[in-house]
Description:
- The protein has 3 domains: 2-83, Double Stranded RNA Binding Domain, CATH 3.30.160; 96-195, DNA polymerase, domain 1; 210-402, Orthogonal Bundle (hpI Integrase, Chain A).
- The chain has 15 helices and 8 strands.
- It has helices at residues 10-17, 68-83, 96-108, 115-133, 143-155, 160-179, 213-222, 225-237, 241-245, 278-290, 313-324, 330-343, 348-354, 361-364, 371-389, and strands at 2-5, 22-26, 32-36, 43-51, 54-63, 252-253, 258-261, 272-275.
- The strands form 2 sheets. Strands 1-2-3-4-5 form a 5-stranded mixed sheet, covered by helices on one side. It has a 3-stranded antiparallel sheet with strand order 6-7-8.
- It is elongated.
Amino acid sequence: MTVLSIQFSDTAIxxxxxxxxxxELKDPRxxxxxxxxxxxxxxxxxxxxxxxxxAKWAKVADWPLVSAKxxxxxxxxxxxKQRKGAEATIDNWETCQGLLTWYRDRALSDRGLSLKRxxxxxxxxxxxxxxxxxxxxxxxxxxxxxxxxxxxxxxxRYQAGTVRQHFAILKKAFKQAHKQKRIANNPLASLCFTxxxxxxxTTKDAKLFEKDLPSLLNEIAEAKPFAKVFAFVxxxxxxxxxxxxxxxxxxxxxxxxxxxxxxxxxxxxxTLKLPLTDLIIEVLLWxxxxxxxxxxxxxxxxxxxxxxxxxxxxxxxxxxxGVSNGRWTAHDLRKLARSMWLDxxxxxxxGEQLVNHKLSGLDQAYIHTHIEEQKRLASEKWHNHxxxxxxxxxxxxxxxxxxxxxxxxxxxx
Length: 413
């Protein structure tokens, strides 16, 4: 470690960065040190005070987010705080723009977040938070400003659940910045969404019910082959659209009749094991033949046009909208499957395991070694029920006006 003594200024610091041997800068006039980061793109300001001849170091800000001039002007106040045992930090940004863009960029590079979550954060910050809060100084942000500038205007344009999601991202950004000691105080620490909106947020009504199952299966039967399989798999398993579009052929174990979806693509970060029933195997073989995938050596059941990557979320939703003509969504398929399992007297815990919901501690206590077999029996019961109405892969399409529950013969061998 090489410590270089200079007179602090941003210009002098930039000159010092050119010498790769220098890792720390000091100015004899001030109780400050600047430790340069490995990338040599910036550094961290440290305040150094002494008590009983012992040096006490505290990181107070980052450079160049906080300039040398700003920190020098603030250092006496910071030194007093530190000697009193109080937290000695300075905000890295004057306005909310710096904090929000920092949080957005940090989230986009976080390998622990799913692509869907990253896209959601980026959209929320760029389209909803920055236009409102970008120019507001951090020291001015308070309950009243949040309410007047963001909450009530947004609640007038969007559903309460959507506004709550944006507020959660705003709050998370400030919490993270404070945790990383990039701001001295968190003005949102004590605020909750219910401080602004007291009404209960209701879930969206389901658009598909048991009575709709015959017409739904007919819609799937009439759909284009690729969309047909995609929608049917979601209905058969009650699976999430993100998990379904990323399914790989390698996840299929035909010998043991299992589909094993790894934790890295599930919403709950938990591996999901699903039974391969005879109906699902039949559908997948149909998919192979009818989609020209028999010689396909790619990884995905539902590849994008380039055959290299899976369907994007946008493409997957477009397939579902093509089947439903905009009348229902992918999540409505999941809701319908879960509802039908209850109607078929499938055990609640088994159903929760099939849709890969996170279970409470009490529910977890009831999980036992026979759960996989119970999941298989439940899936077979549900898939057999589907076949008694209409197997989209075994019959000719029935006109929508003549859809009715009927017993169908299986696909010929």
